[in-house]
Protein 1
Amino acid sequence: MTARFVRTQKEMEGRYEDVWVLVDEADDVESWAPDADLALVGRPAPRLDGAARAAGRVRFTVDVRLAGMLHAAVLRSPAARGRVRSLDLDATLAIPGVRAVLGPESDLSLTTRAPLLAAEPGYAGQPIAVVAADTLEAARAGVEALALDLEILPHVVDAQEGLNRQSFTTDPSDDARGDAEAALAAADVTIELALDTPAQVQTPLEPHAAVASWDGDTLTAWVSTQGMFSARDELSRAFGLRKDDVRVRTEFVGGGFGAKQGAGFEALAAAELSRITGRPVRLVNDRHAEQLDGGRRAATRQTIRLGARRDGTITAIDADAVIAMGQGGWVFPVLIPARTLYRCADVRALTFPVKTNLRAQNAFRAPGVMEGTAAFEQAIDELALALALDPLELRRRNHADVDQVSGLAYSSKQLLACYDRAAELAGWAGREELREPRGDGLLRGMGCATQIWWGGGGPPSHATVRLDADGYASVITGIQDIGTGTLTGAQIVAAEELGLPLDHVRVSGGDTRPNVYGPVAGGSQTTPSVMPAVRSAAAKVRKTLLQLAGDVFEIAAGDLEIRDGRIRSRDGAIDVEVTEVTGKLGDATIDGSGSRGPNPDGFVVHTFGCQIAQVAVDPALGEVRVERIVAVHDVGRIVNPLTASSQVEGGILQGMAFALTEELVVDPTTGVPVNAHLDDYKIPTIADVPEIVIDYPHVPDANLPNVGAKGLGEPPIVPTAAAIANAFAHATGRRAGALPLTRDRVIEALA
Amino acid sequence: MRIESIVLEVNGQRHVVEPAGRRLLAVLRDDLELLGTKLACGEGACGACAVLVDGRPVNACLLLAEAAEGHEIVTIEGLSTGRSSAIQEAFVAEDALQCGFCTPGQIVSATALLERVPQPTRAQIHEAMAGNLCRCGAYPKIERAILRAAGGA
């Protein structure tokens, strides 16, 4: 290992920070050529744990059962805002089976930035107290016995009301360049569009969950999280432990979609209760708690004003977004599409993060950019209408050749190819004929939208590969595979580099104990971060194996190659199974470790894409039916087309539901969400699925290390809602001022 | 309080359990440690807890365990005793699962569908599977997997 420390920029969902990165110069593996003859990478492979998942054999956090394990139940605020007058902890402790109870006044051994339990809850569902008992039933009886007396205080849940009060979670921001006001005044054509977007709940089917167990001063926590290493770091900070004294296990996660970051309340509370009782403690949200407190993409109200020249050149962008943040949380980059999607020198982007009495906003697949695209790309279509230009043509004419904020070049950008391919697959040329009546009373239309997202990944990310005497490789990663198939991606990349059959490579992740770091499964960063590390590790093993083969066959290692599990000399004289060499290892193994190098300086890394939706609207019933979605996304090299298309389909369906059915509805009178259950919060069913057609430009990003793949988790959700809303407008000639396009909104829009 | 025992026939085996007013799902998971059947909503809205009762898919989170006495119950474990079934193989081959949490329920419902309708149409698949939610959105591939297992794809 030739180690260096390098100062570099690290990006996560659009937030950049300068970090020191450990770089091993031996990790400098050359990227596969775009036309390289690869045996496995780029070919569909079923996920390595598919059979176990299909047999129900995999164990999620909610399935962990430990000897002597206690069950925890949480007292949550029934009101949007209040002050605890009294809690009867003694009555709870008197319930048979109850082992511990914690309230806002309890002395805790852990330290957290915000209180773990609230004396003055600021949203409905906020934890006030937690009880651990021998059974879940006893724990729930203990919660009842607390006999909460809560003084109800006035609340604000409406963003406009919060704005009027100038009550913000952080200061409003103004991201401006040039002079948007003057440019608007000088424009040939201007349009304005206002849109309300809904609060959308991540709704993982496995709720937030944790099981904590202490052994002396070391803690093991099973956590349903997207970030096991951040959970480890959070727990070690909270309890004052060294990182290595906390082990987080996250082998299988029943969905996250952004909601499951770090340890969460569940792991912190379970660990605290476990420390007090000396027993393992399990804390699992019930569905109502999950929908109230698991998180959400906040509702926004956005206004977009655009100015353009007669020829379609966009000259002014003036956008503002009011975000109903809740109690706090990260202010999503809602106006990134307005600021970066198209070439424009005069831009103003105002963001108002309004504080409301709802849970703090937390990440949800393409946070901010998705809801920002939903508004901005509808505005672009309105501009096309005002200019009498084809909407795709308008987008092509305003293509951004460089990043509009930094002025830096893109590491790669195949957006124009995405437009062309999507138009071809969707039959865009026949768009106007689509509107002709077919005698079924439905109004049809087609709409498009552009996608931008990050997804370049970066360091740190590590992997270790170990090859044994049987010629089988074991890859140790820091991946928590939340359903994306990234473990299978690592298997493919390692097998490709090692020249082994796929089923001779085993991959592990989901455990911090080996201390092989991988990033949080968020920001579309796992594939671009981890795969290069896996490849680097495998390349070292391959190099060693060929050196050993050279010793065995008395030939220069450079004259040997490995493919399909066989070692061959270039002259064909040697052609043997890998085990001819590895078999001599006995119980020794060939080991290699790899790390992800930094992204190149002087570039920004983004993914791009275009989706085209075709809808049929029933004007009598107000029903919007999505008939077809074409999705073409530029995400560099595709490692596994099978799991990649699963990501695209899943993103599209969540985006479609944002456009049509999903909305967390909050009662303005009580401030309490009224549809925090699965029967009234409408996620899609199999009967709602449109035809989905997927393609990619298949151009690896030559500026990214050694694999050339970008992330794909988030891009597909970004443009779907806007494409559907644009198709709706094309079909009906109307726009609704709010999403989702529920029947009442549709009928109102068509009236 | 006297606790009544009942006999449940699960995956061909008879078990004496004390339901104490609990749902079948709780007895399956907590007493029999059949953890493949999942609790996702507890309100009969998502199908993650689907099991076969006399061959029909039923949400085990709603069914009182006592009501299941005298009926044949089959869980995902009962469908996974030997090698993978045709529908399980099709789910893997088509990638009809992502996180896998809803998958046992999907397999149970699809098994019941194919038993009843060996060659289902798309509409019949939608009708039979609409009660099984998948937040990851594996639906297009679930449909393909069922068609594949039915020999139609």
Protein 2
Amino acid sequence: MEVSLGIYALICILFYIVIPGYIFRRFYFNGEFSKQLSFTSNSTTNLFSSIFIGVLIQLAVVLVYNLCASTPIDLEGILNAFDSNFISSTPANNTENIDQISKFDGISDELFKAYLPYLGLIYMISGTVGFFLSKLIYITKIDATTKLFRFKNEWHYLLSGRILFFSKMKSASGNPNKLKVIYSYVDVLIADTDGTTQLYSGFVADYELNHLDISKLEKLHLIKTERWKLNEDGTRSRKNIPGNLLTIKGERIINLNSTYVCEREEDRVHRVFKRKRLLLLITQIISACIFLFVLFSFIFSFNIFGSEWYDSILKKSWWEKLLILYTINIGVGFITPFTIEADDDGNDRIEFIGRLPIIVKAILLGLLVTILICINK
Amino acid sequence: MKKRIEIAKNTKRFSFIELFLPILADILQINSEADTKEVSNNAWNLVDDADEYDKVIEKIESSRKDPKQDQNIVYIK
């Protein structure tokens, strides 16, 4: 069976499917998990994963847009006219329309007015959704409890104590939902070059993964490290190692014994706090996403609502747009007037930001709205 | 312990940002709640807190000697 793809089909797949999918994954695998998406990892799997996620992103964006806009996106029409929309109908040697020729000769205005703003917006949305989804999965511990969502960094789970939340470990660790891992203390048995072994104990400060194989530990950094010494009478004693940080090469580690130092939280208080915290964080994520989508639509002048009133906002000057954005920013702040803070016992709790900040915010919002109304009169 | 609580308090308080840039404050809070480096940051704070270090080491030692201790999990609170 022969499969042929034209240049426009390849452009369409690359810029509209693969790149948004890749950007989503780049932001999804951030921080400790950034090595999961590297140039050394499997490129074919990466390509297909990016295509799959890119298709999902495109479908979701078109679906949401079509629900909001008065004139929905006609995917079939866009794809059929994709190549013809790229080329300007104005011939290169046509001197009658000087303005058009002076821009980009032979390239359609559609490219600058529709295709590129849409691409910019979709790239930004992909990154934002990827980043926040990753945070949400980590906060809710879905990655630890559900294998499907687990990040490919087993060393992080082991060294941070997050392994206690694995379903297989739950029976061994009691009820991990009531635990909060504070320190991770390890005993590391390493092989010396002369064939002997040494035992070190210390608190985990950091670690590095092998850049070619992320399942392997490259280095383990310990602080407050002690070396165990075998006495003549057969007993062992500890000797403090001077210095700030002890680095052990991963390839020399024979085995590793982890001890997790945890805080136990009261069941009832913990459950209530967890529910409130999750609700607050989800609201914050949604409000931040909405604000960022509006910001991106301003940057790329793309009418995300497909309505005339939003079009009139996009045509406003930059400083007016900035004023509108700042007003939205202050307004959205009223949705989540809470912070998560530690009390005197070290327990996290949800705190209302206070009456005074709310009053200041209300005055500021009133002032901004008044300015906007005055400008538009 | 006190030092860790103080640091936790300071890092989670963005009152000025919360007042004028609430979206940024929300994003910082989301980021702080999904902090993957929390355990290693706590270990670094332990370096300057000799009392807390002694207390934790003592707990670890007594826990290891106790045969009834569940899977070596040490509780400090």
